[in-house]
Amino acid sequence: MIQQRTLKAPISASGVGLHSGERVKLTLLPAAPDTGIVFRRVDLPLPVEIPARPDLVNDTRLSSTLVNAEGVRVATIEHLMSALAGLGIDNLVVEMDGPETPIMDGSSAPFVYLLETAGIAEQAVPKRFIRLKKPLELVEGDKWVRLTPHEGFSVAMEIQFNHPVFQRIPQKICIDFAQHSYLDEVSRARTFGFMHEVEYMRANGLGLGGNLDNAIVIDDDSVLNKDGLRFGDEFVRHKILDAIGDLYIVGHPLIAAFSGFKSGHAMNNALLRQLLATPDAWEFVSFTDPHDAPSSFHRVPEPV
Q1: How do residues 140-186 score in pLDDT, each as one tens digit?
Q2: 203 falls in which pLDDT band (50, 70, 90)?
Q3: N or C: less crowded end of the chain, CB within 10 Å?
Q4: What's the whole-number average pLDDT of the chain?
Q5: CA–CA distance from 205 to each of 18, 63, 198, 210 (Å)?
Q6: Cβ pair 186, 162 in contact under 8 A
Q7: Does residue 35 or residue 198 have the better pLDDT?
């Protein structure tokens, strides 16, 4: 049986929110089977729990942010969600004493390290996958996102910017997790931004915690980070990292192929909402014999 997973022990880290600039302590806590991923704001007069669900993603300006009916926010969850997807974590409580998850180094690798340090525990309950049965697509102008049936999990992405940094190496890639490792190919790719956007972002209360230690910063013709890029196509790899995190907000691993062209958090979320609104397009499946599962899910790191 492919089993659900949580952590063996709690673990904490602190950091600064990319957009809020506020310092926050994050504590990851084991959770019971079928809990899902739940964020808990402990800095409020009474703790508030907000489950990771597509219908609660109500702010997608440069990140994915959960907002409950009372307006309580948990911002920039996509990098942590991506790490949870990459390690196959189903059940977790994420305690935060602030409104935004810490940006760490701009990738999901620090979260992977935290999760692996805490240890991953398998639970005696089958993992539930969402298997796509027919294609779904969303188009907005020249941008699009698509889910298609696929016996595994793959993510393809292409981005285009009229800028010399993006034209040196094609920013187009497909990562099929039957052949590729999330930890090696995706987790270290960092978020990025342009110097000319900084003024706009600051005016809108965004990017207040951003710096060269937690983002790739691009000026008129080059990358400003002293050590350069971790991958020649790090920009599009980060978009894949984001997409994996955004998709995992649905609460289950997808047996499907995702592809996107110039898409971002808003379209990723809209596609999930379309998926849930089309019940004949998918089904829940579990695997009593792990060998019956697509090979993409055999590459998920073993519990430690």
Answers
A1: 999 999 999 999 999 999 998 888 788 788 889 999 999 999 999 99
A2: confident
A3: C
A4: 93
A5: 11, 13, 10, 12
A6: no
A7: 35
- Specify whether 265 is catalytic: yes
- Other beta carbons less than 10 A from residue 188's beta carbon: 20
Calpha distance 169→42 (Å, rounded): 44
Give, to the nearest 10 degrees, the angle between helix 78-87 and helix 234-248. Answer: 80
Quick check: pTM over 0.90?
yes
Listed residue (275, 1, 45) closest to 149, CA to CA: 275
Q: Kindly give, in sequence order, each residue whose CB lies less than 8 Å from that of residue 139, ignoring residues fewer than 6 positions away.
A: none
**Cβ 132 vs Cβ 154: under 8 Å:** no
Catalytic residue among 19, 265, 291, 298: 265
| Lookup result for tokens 């990358």 | 223
The two three-digit tokens of residue 295, written as one number: 């090979």
Q: How many CB atoms lie within 10 A of CB 187?
A: 23
Q: Which of 304, 273, 9, 297 is nearest to 128 (CA)?
A: 297
- Using DSSP, state whether 168 is helix, strand or coil: coil
Q: Which residues contact 92 (CB under 8 A, 6 or more apart)?
A: 6, 7, 28, 29, 30, 31, 35, 37, 38, 84
The pairing of beta strand 92-96 with beta strand 37-41: parallel
